[in-house]
Amino acid sequence: MTLAIFAIVLTAYVAVAALLARRIKNKDDFYVMGEQGSTLLIVGTLAATFLSAVTLMGIAGISYSEGPLVIAALGSFGAWVGTLIAVVFIGRKLKALNCRTMMDFFDYRFNNKWVSVVALILMVIGLLGYGIIQLIGAGLVLAEIIDIPFPVIIVAFTLALLAFCSLSGMYGVVYTDTMMFFTMLAIAFVIAPMLIGDAGFEAMKGLGETLPGFWTVGGANDRPLGWSISQFLVWILFFACTPALVSRVFPAKNDFVILKVAVIGVFFAPAMQLLVFLAASAMQVIQPGIEPTDRAMIVGFMEHTNPTLAGIGLAGLMASIMSTASTLFVLTGFALARDLYEKLFDREVSERKGVVLGRISQAVVALVVCAVAISRPAGIYWISIYAGAIFAVAWLPTIVAAMHWRRMNANAALACMLVGSITFIVVGELERHGLVSLPLHIDNLQVAILLGTLALIAVGLKSQPSEYELKVFDDMRARRLSDTTIRDILARPDGARELVREYRQVWGIMVLFVIIAGALWGYLFSKLGT
After folding, report:
1. Pick from 17, 114, 299, 478: CA 20 to 30 A from residue 176's CA?
2. How many CB atoms lie within 10 A of CB 394?
């Protein structure tokens, strides 16, 4: 049953990508699906990207062993805030500037080769680190469950990902992500409530007696407050500027779609996470002693539901892997083709050649990812730890300053990215090897973002922006996506009426989901007595 579902799911994704390939007529189709993304599609791809294998395995394992509040109270809330910033503030501004990738913003804002090169290197390291380690971990679990050798699973995943990423570009990623989103909804709103119901709220509340601290922010392992604060910060700062989330805005039809996504998608992502974390905690009642704890939800799927739901759970796990890995493939491939080759070697590349280059770059990324994942090097684990934080300490201060500070210039951008990333890695390694000891409640993330930001400010004050940078800043501040959307809608027949209808829809959706969120959180909090 599970093997059949594994094959069917991969085949379905490839089939959808093959059908969508005929829509690719030019580079805009390949990179941003012709900016035709509807609310449903953008909600689907955003939520699917938000929920990675880390949610269903790593963080679920912490919820199982230490309690759900360790991550959910601060880390998950930070991710929610970061996603909102990524969609509403950063993504909308970059889309207003006609960015096709996040690297377009660095090129446009600074027009400096070294800024672009450093930003590109950091992006590739971050995406590779964040994506490959999930592929490795999830592949190991699946190899154990469905009795297929690990290399075979990795190759199967890679071929499937290569097919729907290279054939149809962003079309394939967005449509398959939306398919994956519905599978993940089944886990969060069908399987998770069943596991919680089997355990019972009273028994779950009682875990605080057998595992002291289970229902506290510190958890059963009594983690320090500084660790929790760091989790809160890293997920805000990482999610706010990660290309995986910001780029999901670029294919949207218009500003109204993005505003609806900001309400619907940003509701579903943490709601699904919370239910999964509670279900993982319920597994502590149903079957204590699961080792390694990363398998808690997998055991719940396979041993405590019927075969059909077990298959859906396995499909959801595969979806969480593939939605993250497809982001790795497509964004890293875009970086090689559009942000490296086209901008450095051939700015006049034709539409047809540009699409071909994009597909070739996907194949290159596929070979690298497959080889690294199969070899399972220990060093990749540490890269994965640094991945999210590198975006937080190097990219976010640079992007925010570039948007809002007139004195921001290429020298300040380089200082921030280099000081922030190097400080994070060096201080983290020194602390890990016992060579330095940071004060209580302080970690290398906080040190790195402080020093990176100070370097940005100091260099920005010492050096002057160029005439180009000043002109671009003024132009950028004057361009708003809402103005473009209003102008385009008013130009249509009966545009004024359509504009009013869109405004009412946004407000109606916002009120509806505030009520739904209040009801859901209120119900869970009252049942768990938190």
Report:
1. 299
2. 29
Closest to 70 measured CA to CA, from 228, 211, 207:
228
Q: Which residues of the chain have pLDDT under 70?
A: 1-3, 6, 10, 131, 134, 137-138, 140-142, 144-146, 164, 338-349, 351, 354, 376-388, 440-441, 530
| Interacting residues of 316 by C-beta distance below 8 A, sequence separation 6+ | 56, 180, 183, 184, 186, 187, 191
Tokens of 320: 């969480």
504 burial (CB, 10 Å; 0-12 / 13-18 / 19+) is exposed
Note whether 164 and 401 are within 8 A (CB). Answer: no
Alpha helix stretches (DSSP H) within 149-200? 150-186, 192-199
Among 307, 312, 283, smallest CA distance to 295 is for: 283
Q: Is the peptide bond before 292 cis (omega within 30 degrees of 0)?
A: yes
Tokens of 37: 């993304």
Query: 447 CB contacts (<8 Å, ≥6 apart)?
Result: 423, 424, 427, 438
Q: How much of the chain is in helix, strand and coil states, percent to nearest 5?
A: 85, 0, 15
CA distance 89 to 396: 12
252 vs 456: CA distance, rounded Å? 32
Residue among 421, 445, 209, 188 at smallest CA distance from 312:
188
Which residue do the tokens 């996470």 mark? 273
Q: Is the dihedral of CA 354, 16, 142, 315 positive or negative?
A: positive
Burial per residue of 316-339, b for 16 or more beta-carbon CB atoms within 10 angstroms, e otherwise: bbbbbbbbbbbbbbbbbbbbbbbb
Q: What is the pLDDT of residues 258-311, one digit of tens each?
A: 999 989 987 887 888 889 999 999 999 999 999 888 888 888 988 898 888 888
264 close to 39: Cβ distance less than 8 angstroms: yes
**Token pair listed for 396:** 């976010």
Q: Residue 381 has what pLDDT? A: 46
Q: Where are the beta strands (DSSP E) in 242-342?
A: none
Phi, then psi, of 289 in degrees rounded to 5: 90, 15
**313-316: long-range pairs with CB below 8 Å, 24+:** 313/187, 313/191, 314/2, 314/5, 314/6, 314/142, 314/145, 314/146, 315/5, 315/9, 315/183, 316/56, 316/180, 316/183, 316/184, 316/186, 316/187, 316/191
Cα-only R_g, the chain: 23
